Amino acid sequence: MGVGISFWVSLWDLGLGVWDLTSSLHQQVRRTIRRHGLVPPGARVLVGLSGGSDSVALTRLLLDLAEHGEFTVAGLAHLNHQLRASAERDESFCRLFAQRLGLPIVVEAVDVRAYAQAHTLSIEDAARRLRYAFLERVAADIGADRIAVGHTQDDQAETFLLKLMRGAGLTGLAGIYPRRGAVIRPLLDVTDVDLQAYLASQGEPWVEDETNDDLDNPRNRVRHVILPELDRAAGGSTHPAIARAAGLIREDGQWLDELGRERVRALAVRTGNRLELDLRSLAELPPPVLRRVLLLALRAAAGTREVGLEHVEAVAALLSGTQGGVDVPGSRVELRGGKLVLLQQGAV
Amino acid sequence: MGVGISFWVSLWDLGLGVWDLTSSLHQQVRRTIRRHGLVPPGARVLVGLSGGSDSVALTRLLLDLAEHGEFTVAGLAHLNHQLRASAERDESFCRLFAQRLGLPIVVEAVDVRAYAQAHTLSIEDAARRLRYAFLERVAADIGADRIAVGHTQDDQAETFLLKLMRGAGLTGLAGIYPRRGAVIRPLLDVTDVDLQAYLASQGEPWVEDETNDDLDNPRNRVRHVILPELDRAAGGSTHPAIARAAGLIREDGQWLDELGRERVRALAVRTGNRLELDLRSLAELPPPVLRRVLLLALRAAAGTREVGLEHVEAVAALLSGTQGGVDVPGSRVELRGGKLVLLQQGAV
Predict the structure, then answer these.
(1) Chain A contact present for B118, CB below 8 A
(2) pTM for the whole thing?
(3) A322 at B interface, C-beta within 8 A
(4) How buried is B256 (Cβ within 10 angstroms: 0-12 exposed, 13-18 middle, 19+ buried)?
(5) Which of A12, A255, B134, B205 is the most exposed place for a label (fewest CB within 10 A)?
(6) What is the pLDDT of residue A293?
(7) Residues 6+ apart with CB under 8 A from A172
(8) Are strands A339-344 and B43-48 parallel, antiparallel or unpaired?
């Protein structure tokens, strides 16, 4: 009888545990969707499906949330990258998964290697570009207005650290955006571990990514070496803290970028190859807005050339000095008659 | 004769190399001082001296820059922390260094361990608090209006990573400030390696910190394990990129914090234990400013209790909902008649 009771208690605990897990996961995803306005009422959502735990869980969670009738899961899309031995297995898995859920699925195969070579891109960049082009195409074909992809808090933390160490300080530290055009990322506030626990509790299978052990690849080093080391130093998972920081920095940056665009539109006067900004108006800008105005002005003059933080700083130094000029990509910048003047190259 | 020429060339190269190094280091420090307005004209600067390469180089660099007459190095201050076997050696070194440069020096010894115990602080926190209190005291005694300390780009990168992994997302991600009150950090844009190369080129000795190998200490783990791993993943030093990111994030955050303070002063109406904010005015704020206004309002109601990001988010969720209330540290927050109302605990 003692056994009976403890059996009951265990089931009860388990039941509550699963219920809590599922419920809080759904709540978190719904919160992310609401907070960033990811899915407008009545939207038709296409889900990008790799067959991994993230995108399988994404499909299941969106189907559950769609039951309230606020939006529809319009279908699935799987791109066979033909990069790994498991590519065919993954494709069949996705087809069967779609069939079981009664969802339409579009599958296509691409030659990532050939594309990468033709466009001198890394395999990772080529795959990303092909994948999003494919998803946009399928969305247009099936009349979907949102494309959901499975990036999680773990991806967010990795991307943030990668950008941090590469010095993407001026514009790119924000990490992964919850939404970019039609692409939405409802899982950005949940972890891989929680998603896998949820799938396990539902008896829902997924395919494992072939582990990429190549530690020469920076992303793998961040995932397999650096993040675990950070966790060890902090005495617990650092992913939530890093992902949250990335989100706050993104939010700050997005609004400041917007202010910068507004101000440069109001202040910059273009005449032929000459771009002028009034020095007194620039002096009134707070440093974060000034930095963005200078970046945008330098970019406008630079054409396709890269403008870096060092160029923005050089022009900022010019502003705080009394005279002189400085050469930046595509133009020369000088102080003339109360104006900051950008002379596009060849126009001096 | 061939030998003679190559000897000449080597000396010439070396000479130029040293000259360039010194010159660019001085320029960088001068740039940091100018950019952040660290030293007002005619200022008297006290230098905090540990005897390590950073603070020895700081003293030398400031003396060189002071030759232009824009400010004076008023003296040195060394605090003997009595924590390591080398403490006495370091103290004598500092006294001799000051004597050689003809600068006044104030030396004091403290019992960090006892202070840490009495105030339940970590040794690191206790040492920091005692050190800054000592420096402020000496500055007042000798009539110095600025206190220069030797934090470098390396310290900046370490501190940023530590804060990142600890989740100091809401206010603390900025890392080390170039200036806080009278304390200034002119070396924040230069590296330990460059400072040591400069001292070596000048034949200027310094004392080595006893290496702290205790990898259970998070800062040591960041310094000895995580930053080298990041460098390996990036294929080069990541300190400059991380320090630069910290600086940009600080600049953005400082201005946004200021906007938040301005808005909360304009919007918050306090009546007894009640703090009210007009909902329509809140709705007009951009997300980064709204977040700061809510944080400041919650803090005002929380007294000494900690307010976290989760509380700010809970209130933000309340704003985007239609009704209800939420409990936060020290108060209950509700929507009532077009207002966000914070009721301090015990006042419901």
Answers:
(1) no
(2) 0.82
(3) no
(4) buried
(5) A12
(6) 95
(7) A163
(8) unpaired
Instruction: Tell me the chain A residues in contact with residue B222 when contact means C-beta distances shorter than 8 Å.
Output: 233
Q: Is A248 helix (H, G, I), strand (E, B) or coil?
A: helix
* Residue A346 banded pLDDT, cuts 50, 70, 90: low
Task: Yes or no: say if B73 and B66 are a contact pair by the CB < 8 Å rule.
Answer: yes
Chain B residues touching residue A34 (CB < 8 angstroms) = 320
> What mean pLDDT do residues A131-135 have?
97
- Going by C-alpha positions, the residue among A175, A222, A166 that lies closest to residue B234 is A166
Torsion-angle region of A292 (φ positive above 0: left; ψ -120 to 50: alpha; else: beta): alpha
| Mean pLDDT, residues B130-158 taken together | 96
For A306-334, write each residue's pLDDT tens digit.
888 888 888 988 887 766 789 998 899 99
| Subunit contact A317:B161, Cβ cutoff 8 A | no
Structure ipTM over 0.95, yes or no: no
B153-166 helix and A239-267 helix, angle to the nearest 10 degrees: 120
Kindly state the average pLDDT of the residues B235-253.
Answer: 88
Residue pair A319/A341 in contact by the 8 Å Cβ criterion: no
Q: Does B222 touch chain A (CB under 8 A)?
A: yes
Looking up tokens 């976290």 gives B308
- Cβ of residue A288 closer than 8 Å to a chain B Cβ: yes
A320: distance to nearest CA of chain B, Å?
9
Check A164 against B252: CB less than 8 A apart.
no
Phi, psi at residue A331, to the nearest 5°?
A: -160, 170
Conformation bin of residue A46: beta by default, left when phi > 0, alpha when psi is -120 to 50: beta
* Cα gap B269→B301, rounded to integer Å: 12
Give the distance from residue B89's alpha carbon to the nearest chain A alpha carbon, in angstroms: 32
Determine which of B159, B217, B252 to mutate to test the interface with A (most A C-beta atoms within 10 Å). B252
In A, which residues are within 8 Å of B32 by CB distance?
none
pLDDT band, very low/low/confident/very high, at B8 (cuts 50, 70, 90): very low
User: Which chain B residues contact residue A167 at CB under 8 A?
Assistant: 238, 240-241, 244-245
